[in-house]
From TrEMBL:
Keyword terms, alphabetized: Membrane, Transmembrane, Transmembrane helix
Bilayer-spanning residue ranges: 12-34, 103-121, 150-170, 190-213
Species name: Candidatus Azambacteria bacterium GW2011_GWA1_44_9
UniProt protein name: Glycosyltransferase RgtA/B/C/D-like domain-containing protein
Superkingdom of this protein's organism: Bacteria
C-alpha cells in the first residue's frame, strides 16, 4: 500500500487538488449567501441558472429543450445542439436531485478533464511527473470556465479528447483504432456545441491544406476519408437539422429556426431586468 502511494503520490495529490479546487465556486457561493442559505442553487457564472433550467428540463424528459422557461414552447426544438446538456443531466435520470447533479458535475468533469490532459501530455511525449504538472497548470488556467455548467464543463474535456485522438492518429496513421477513434470524437463535436465542431472542422481543414501543400497524397486522401466518414457519422444530426429548419441551408438556418423561441427569450430578459 505504501509503495502504491509513493509511486502515485503526485497523481493522488493532483486528484485531491482538482477536486478541492473544483468545489471552491460552490463553497464560495454558499459563503456569500451566508447563514440564510437554504440549499437553493446559486449562480456562480452569469448564465448558470439558465443552464440549470435546461438540465432540469432534460431530466423531466424534454430532451430537445424547446424552452425551459415557458410552457407554450415546451415542445419546440432548441436552436442550438444539446448533446452537452444530455451529458450533464444523466444523473437526473438515475434519481439524483438537480442540486446533487450540479455538485456531481463539479466533481466528475474536472476529473475527466484531468485524465484527458494527462493522456494528452503523455501522447506528446512528456514524462509522468511533467504530464501531471502540466495537467494541473492547464486545469488552473481554465478553472473559472470549468465552473460554467454544461458549457464549458462538458465541452472542454471532449475537446481535449479530440486532440488526443488527433495526435494519436498523426503518430500512427496506419492504426485502424486511431482512425476510428478520431472519427468518433470528431463526429461527437458536432452533437455537443456549435463552437466546438467549428474548431474541429477548421483544424481538420488546415491539416488537409498542409498535406496538400506538402503533396503528401497518402495523408491527404486519408484525411479526406476521415472527413467523409465524419459526415456519415454525423448524418443523424444533419437529418435532425433538416427537420428543424425545413431548409437545405442546414448549418445556418438551424440557428434561426422557431422565432417563438427567441420571442420568449426576449420576454425572459425583460422579466429578469424588471
Amino acid at each position: 500500500m505504501n509503495n502504491l502511494f509513493r509511486k502515485n503520490k503526485y497523481l493522488i495529490f493532483a486528484v485531491i487538488f482538482v477536486v478541492a479546487f473544483s468545489l471552491l465556486p460552490l463553497l464560495y457561493s454558499v459563503y456569500l449567501a451566508g447563514p440564510d442559505w437554504q440549499g437553493i442553487l446559486l449562480e456562480y457564472t452569469n448564465d448558470g441558472l439558465y443552464y440549470y433550467a435546461r438540465m432540469s428540463d432534460v431530466g423531466k424528459g424534454h430532451v430537445f429543450i424547446g424552452n425551459p422557461f415557458f410552457l407554450e414552447h415546451l415542445k419546440e426544438y432548441s436552436p442550438a445542439f444539446f448533446g452537452a446538456d444530455w451529458l450533464a443531466s444523466w444523473p437526473l435520470w438515475l434519481g439524483f436531485s438537480l442540486e446533487q447533479t450540479v455538485v456531481f458535475n463539479y466533481l466528475l468533469w474536472p476529473l475527466i478533464l484531468l485524465a484527458a490532459l494527462l493522456t494528452l501530455f503523455k501522447t506528446l511525449g512528456l514524462s509522468r511527473s511533467r504530464a501531471i504538472g502540466g495537467a494541473v497548470v492547464s486545469y488552473l488556467s481554465i478553472h473559472e470556465l470549468m465552473s460554467r455548467p454544461v458549457v464549458m464543463q462538458v465541452v472542454f474535456p471532449v475537446y481535449v479528447l479530440f486532440l488526443v485522438a488527433l495526435l494519436r492518429y498523426l503518430k500512427e496513421p496506419n492504426d485502424k483504432k486511431n482512425y476510428c477513434l478520431l472519427i468518433c470524437f470528431y463526429a461527437l463535436t458536432f452533437y455537443l456545441y456549435s463552437y466546438l465542431w467549428q474548431i474541429a472542422v477548421v483544424t481538420m481543414f488546415l491539416l488537409l491544406l498542409w498535406w496538400l501543400v506538402k503533396k503528401d497524397w497518402i495523408n491527404f486522401q486519408t484525411g479526406f476519408l476521415i472527413n467523409f466518414n465524419y459526415d456519415q457519422v454525423g448524418s443523424g444530426e444533419d437529418s435532425f437539422a433538416n427537420d428543424v429548419s425545413g431548409s437545405d441551408f442546414i448549418l445556418g438556418n438551424v440557428e434561426l429556426r422557431a422565432i417563438v423561441y427567441f420571442y420568449s427569450m426576449v420576454r425572459t430578459g425583460k422579466q429578469k431586468s424588471a
